[in-house]
Design a protein that fits this description.
Rossmann fold; elongated; 2 domains; 6-stranded mixed sheet; 6-stranded parallel sheet; transport; alpha/beta
Length: 327
């Protein structure tokens, strides 16, 4: 079988993440979360602009993936994250004014970013969207979207929770206006076969998250399942289940070291894994291929990085990779 440039690029990705005796890192390991990939004499410059702030365990892994790709291809990668869509738009405008060779952007609030992304496309800067906003990606002019179908992932979570005996589920939404989070809850509702209630919390105040989930579990004894949509919220929900004396079963979206440990200990049933390292690594790969060979990927459809599921069966293996900053 002939190996196309895309196949070769993806084989290179596997070489970075899979050839190691230290939990997924190779000699060309992912940079630390605070480092910048700016090799001397870089052949291209790519801006990664997400809605995840610094120090977030999920987005740190995305950043690691993008910077590892930049290091491999000898291109400059700058990463900036801000949960405020207005500030995110400003960062996109700044990247356009700097005439970067490509932009990677997550769209938790697509409508708020439409104008800024439109300016990038009008300036003939290729855009790859990641993580959120897949439904708007093509319409906004992006060359592809990299992430998971939140609806499909939500349905998968609902199926597993139903199999575990959950009949009334609390779906904890931690970011107001994030379309992907609502899609996760809707997907779970479609397959659970029971009742799904939403609880709005603020991810920046985890003590309050624990308090609100505790209060809900104490006031409604019929709630026998909790679905967190963020790893930090999952740990807060775990504490709430303990504090309330509830027997509710807990599942979450996305990984952190604490979540993996909780899965190993039987405190969390599973985590829906969208492999966020790929959401950083693959867009830089795709933009580099587009710049050098006009390759496009996906044929108008998203490139899915998930969903996968981390359970007690594979948590030990994933834990080692999470320690390396690639999961």
């Amino acid at each position: 079988m002939r190996r196309t440039p895309i196949v070769l690029a993806l084989l290179g990705a596997l070489a970075v993440t899979g050839c190691s005796s230290s939990g997924g890192q190779s000699a060309q390991s992912a940079p630390a979360a605070g480092s910048a990939a700016a090799p001397a004499g870089a052949s291209a410059s790519f801006a990664v602009i997400t809605h995840g702030g610094a120090g977030d365990s999920f987005w740190d892994v995305v950043k690691n993936g993008a910077e590892a790709a930049g290091k491999q291809y000898g291109v400059k990668v700058t990463y900036q994250g801000d949960g405020d869509p207005a500030k995110q738009s400003q960062l996109i405008d700044q990247a356009v004014s700097e005439k970067v060779d490509g932009i990677v952007v997550s769209m938790a609030n697509p409508d708020a970013l439409k104008e800024a992304i439109g300016k990038a496309v009008a300036a003939k800067i290729p855009v790859v969207t990641i993580n959120s906003g897949a439904d708007s990606s093509k319409a906004f002019g992006a060359i592809t979207h990299v992430g998971q179908s939140e609806d499909v992932a939500g349905r998968g979570a609902g199926e597993q929770l139903k199999a575990a005996g959950v009949t009334k589920l609390l779906c904890v939404i931690h970011e107001a206006g994030n379309v992907g989070l609502d899609q996760r809850c809707k997907g779970a509702e479609q397959t659970l076969g029971g009742t799904v209630e939403r609880l709005q919390v603020d991810v920046s105040n985890l003590a309050d998250v624990t308090s609100k989930v505790t209060a809900k579990l104490q006031s409604d004894k019929q709630v026998n399942g909790v679905l967190a949509l963020n790893p930090a919220v999952a740990i807060a929900a775990r504490d709430a289940i303990k504090d309330s004396g509830s027997q509710a079963k807990l599942a979450t979206f996305d990984l952190s070291g604490d979540v993996v440990s909780a899965i190993k200990d039987g405190e969390i049933l599973f985590a829906v894994d969208q492999q966020q390292y790929l959401q950083g690594y693959l867009p830089i790969t795709f933009l580099n291929l587009y710049k050098n060979n006009l390759n496009t990927v996906g044929g108008g459809l998203p490139v899915n990085t998930g969903p996968g599921f981390v359970t007690k069966d594979n948590a030990e293996q994933v834990a080692k990779l999470a320690e390396a900053g690639t999961r």
